[in-house]
Amino acid sequence: MIDLNQSTENQKKKEKKPKRILIVEPNPDIQFLYSLFTIQYGFSISDVKVVQDGNKCLEIIDSSREDNNENNDYDIFIVDTHLHDISGFEVARKIRDRLPHKRIILTTTYSLDNISSMIDSIGIKNQDVLFKPFSYSELVSILKEPGMSYN
After folding, report:
1. Among 103, 95, 109, 51, which residue's Cα sits nearest to residue 76?
2. What is the pLDDT of residue 1?
């Protein structure tokens, strides 16, 4: 006998959930562009959160870990290096320390020569650094990886 309910449950477990993205960007205009961009490229509003400072990002991460709250569990972090409250590099380092297997993408106006040793020490790949101004197609190419699903 086949249990159809069990088959359906197993199938749902096998389906990949959409990637969730937390974006840390201090500039309201760029925050708005990120919101438009993510919707245009098929991300659900509930799968993308944009915050303006590093401490808020870290607060979200900590609340997720403490409460085991999946609503605050993100797969990818896009962090600007020029935050108002704490260095974006420091935020990235703390994300890496707390969530070592999560993907971190940095956006910056620094040259690669100036930040190379810093990103190496954090464990961020050169290809996961976007230099401002960048086109959103560059971000799409970074986000499009095998197994990445959208809503």
Report:
1. 103
2. 46
